[in-house]
Amino acid sequence: MGYLITYFIISVYSLALLGIFFYSLAQLNLLFNYLKFKKKTVEGPVWNLKDPAQTPYVTIQLPLYNEAYVVERLLDNIAQIQYPKEKLEIQVLDDSTDESVQDNAQQIAKLQASGLDIVHIRRSNREGYKAGALKEGLVVAKGEFIAIFDADFLPQKDWLLKTVPHFAQPEIGVVQTRWGHLNRDYSVLTKIQAFALDAHFTLEQVGRNSKGHFINFNGTAGIWRKQCIIDAGNWEGDTLTEDLDLSYRAQLKGWKFKYLEEVETPAELPMVISAARSQQFRWNKGGAENFRKSARKVLGAKNLPFKTKFHGFMHLLNSSMFLFVFTVALLSIPMMFIKSSYPELAWVFEVTSFFIVSTLILFFCYWFTYKNIQGGGFEKFLEYIALFFTFFSVALGFSLHNSLAVLEGHMGKRSEFVRTPKFNITQLKDSWKSNRYLNKKISPNVLIEGALMGYFLYGMYVAVPLNDFGLFPFHFMLFLGFGFVFFKSISAKI
Fold first, then answer.
1. What percent of the chain has pLDDT over 90?
2. Euclidean distance between CA atoms 148 and 218, whole angstroms
3. Could you say which of 94, 95, 198, 245 is catalytic?
């Protein structure tokens, strides 16, 4: 291997590690913010909703697209929301193209007959996808405030009573609540998704919001001030994560967001790997698209402090961490041969080995978020260790899939908004294989993931003749992660 190629590999490998290290430092800073905030009692003016004069008109928007398995459950749940009926409107924004449209219409008619102000809004096309549906509903919405729930979310009856009062503070444009998980314990796949989302909804959302840094509306389980949506430029469908896009445009305009960690809104996690893959692709590509769209505006904003710019930049860059991780993984085996062939470069490996600190920082940060929701103690810590390394391995296994999504986002390649299939299944004995919305095709990328499983098995094998076992645990987790994603993807099609 020539010196030019050697130094190129070392440089790319080191830069990717540096990106991961900065990300872990940002997470550590958010942890400090989170722990400080948990010790404080934050108060502010709130409306008294027992007083009709202080009770604003609210519109609940329910965007749907072919949700046959969960719509009945959703509408039954929303019908139980506690709020003065004369000041509540429900919009069912139904872009469905299958027979669920008729079933939805029948249930909506029954609710209308019960006295509920609920309307069934249909479009002739899906222009703008979810963003387009929300925008069209907004035109005729009666409410000053717009609550949004995806089809698999089941807010508690008092959800509006807990969220609406905070808009007494006129600068608040959004109130976002924490996601819960109806099927957390269904499988390994749902457990690790819940683990990752819990970290986002505790460490990241609280850590940023508590210091006035930018956070994001999560697309659902939150409520907007209508004036804020309009002032920020309304919904736009030019990215796959319209929620993140509007959030940053609103905050750049000076609107404040309120995050309520104590208000949990349960939802269903994807329980089939094809559904998780489509969701991950959309989120990660959308994140990269929003980096292209908003990062310069954040860095160039004259009214923002340095820390807010730094956390905003890292927030928008979040999905790109998969690209850094995949780069490190792919180059780690060539790096083993470089280390063996060029003893004079030993200092490079001593420096780069320092970045094991990144993993330790994340391990430390995620423990606090896990403990906050699941409880502490020695047994819980042992459970956490097993779950963290399972999560870490599977996240590594998704790194190719998510890196391709990130690359498409950074390059500006447009693609369709692919919804995540819903199941309405919470017990392991229930079958999901008859779900009509599942993608039956095997992506060519799955075969590459199978090959990568073999590649990292080779990485463990060459550790023996090279007498270099420093990366053996990393390659073992990569082998397990890509193996999990590969075999789950194949078996789901059989």
1. 80
2. 10
3. 95
